[in-house]
Structures are given as C-alpha cells and as structure tokens.
Write a structure and sequence with these properties.
With 251 residues, the chain is an alpha/beta fold. It has a single domain, classed as TIM Barrel (Alpha-Beta Barrel), CATH 3.20.20.70. The chain has ten helices and twelve strands. It has an eight-stranded parallel beta barrel with strand order 1-4-5-6-7-10-11-12, surrounded by six helices. Strand 7 and strand 8 form a beta hairpin. Helix 1 packs parallel to helix 2 and helix 8 crosses helix 10. The protein starts with a strand and ends in a 7-residue tail after the last helix.
C-alpha cells in the first residue's frame, strides 16, 4: 500500500492565513511563509496554498506571497486561486509551486483542465471541489463556497479525471472548521468513482479523524488547517498515531 499523505492547508486572504467554519467567520492564523516553514520542519508531506478570495474578487493570485512561501518549503507545494489560463499556471509554477489547483475556473471552463494537463502534466493539476450535502448526494459550489452549481460532486469528479486532472482536493463544506471529523461517506463515494488520488479536506479535529478518513473514507491523503495552525495536533504525533494503527505514512 502506498504511504498516506498528511497535508497542511494555507487559506490565504490579503496575504495572511485565515481559517473559519463552513467557509465563514474567518480569523487570522499567521503569515503563510512562516507557517509553511514550520510545517516543513515538522514533517508534513505537502502544503497547499489557496488564495480563497481571488475568484470572487476576479483577480490573479498574489505571486509575491507564493514566492515567499515556496522559498520556505522543500516538499511539494500546490497553489490555487485565480488560475484561469495556462499563463496564470505557468506564472505560479515558475514562482516555485510544484502543482496548481483549479476550482471555479475549471467548472466554468472544463477544457482548462485538459489545457493545463497537456502543458504541465496531469501530476501537476489538482481539481479542487467544494461539496455540500444535498439530499442523498452532494452539490458542487464555486467562488469560495458562495455559488451553488447544478453539478453532482461525484459526477464532476469523474468528468474532471476524464479532462485530465491528476488529483482531487475534496472539501466538505458541511464539516469545514467544525473539528468533528471528515465526511467519510463523501470521500469514499468520490474515491470509489475515480482512479486518481483523493485528498480529504474539512472537519479534522483529532488524529483519529485522520485514521478514519484514510481507512473508512478510502482517501489517499488528508488535509487540515486550523488544528495545525493553532497547535491542537502536532504533525509528528499524528503520524505516530497513524503508524501505530498500521496506516502507512512517511516518517
């Protein structure tokens, strides 16, 4: 079995890391470059940097902040927010990122995924999906969780893979920031529908939540933000917990 990845997420607004609950009530969590350096030292496997208001404000990513952050990490760095074209992605990748993440722009123009994967390779293209439960399934939301789209999450994940995405970052809006656990049902449904890796996001509150989503949820990786930012869970302790449960992780 491949090692499961532990990923730290930096939700960035106006150059600062913020975190809220269910995409609202944001509070400051620090400088992205400083946090990235700390996580790199603690042994996190990857960092994902998301400019959470770039699409809503219809602007490009703050490249200078990406450059500062990239200089602090020696592990894969994925960056998303405001990437609408191949040129935008190239600017981010040449700024030090290893992967780019697309969400709103991919929903509005799915062929963008193909253009990016053909230019940079599918391994560099992460399709981010913000999901909210609706009836027996889940609906896709765009613009930082502000706009519902007439798309089923599972169907969009399948389409995204077909368009060329190499990975899916799947965020449960219902669980985001609650620290009550990941949505294992959602993660499992998407993981079983696609062949590419799925990163579970939204709801981490304890090491056991990671163990659950990596096993019951069948996720390939699990991401957290606030519990890392505020020191509730230490990455090394988390990995020791997972290892003790027989879950393969990089130590």
């Amino acid at each position: 079995m491949l090692a499961k990845r532990i990923i730290a997420c930096l939700d960035v607004k106006e150059g600062r890391v913020v975190k809220g609950t269910q995409f609202v009530q944001l509070r400051d969590a620090g400088d992205p470059a400083e946090l990235a350096a700390a996580y790199n030292g603690e042994g996190v496997d990857e960092v994902i940097f998301l400019d959470i208001t770039a699409s809503t404000e219809k602007r490009g990513l703050i490249v200078e902040t990406v450059v500062r952050t990239a200089r602090q990490v020696f592990i894969p760095l994925a960056v998303g927010g405001g990437i609408r074209a191949v040129g935008d992605a190239r600017r981010i990748l040449t700024s030090g990122a290893d992967k780019i993440s697309v969400n709103t722009a991919a929903v509005e123009k799915p062929e963008l995924i193909t253009e990016l994967s053909e230019e940079f390779g599918s391994q560099a293209v992460v399709l981010a999906i913000d999901a909210r439960r609706e009836g027996d399934g889940w609906r896709v939301f765009t613009y930082g969780g502000r706009k519902p789209v007439n798309l089923s999450v599972v169907e969009w994940a399948i389409e995204g893979e077909a368009f060329g995405a190499g990975e899916i970052l799947l965020t449960s809006m219902d669980c985001d920031g609650t620290e009550k656990g990941f949505d294992c049902e959602l993660t499992r449904a998407v993981s079983r529908a696609v062949k590419i890796p799925v990163i579970a996001s939204g709801g981490a509150g304890s090491p056991e939540h990671f163990a659950q989503v990596l096993t019951e949820g069948e996720a390939d990786a699990a991401l957290a933000a606030s519990i890392f930012h505020y020191g509730k869970v230490r990455i090394r302790d988390l990995k020791e917990h997972l290892k003790a449960q027989g879950i393969p992780v990089r130590m």
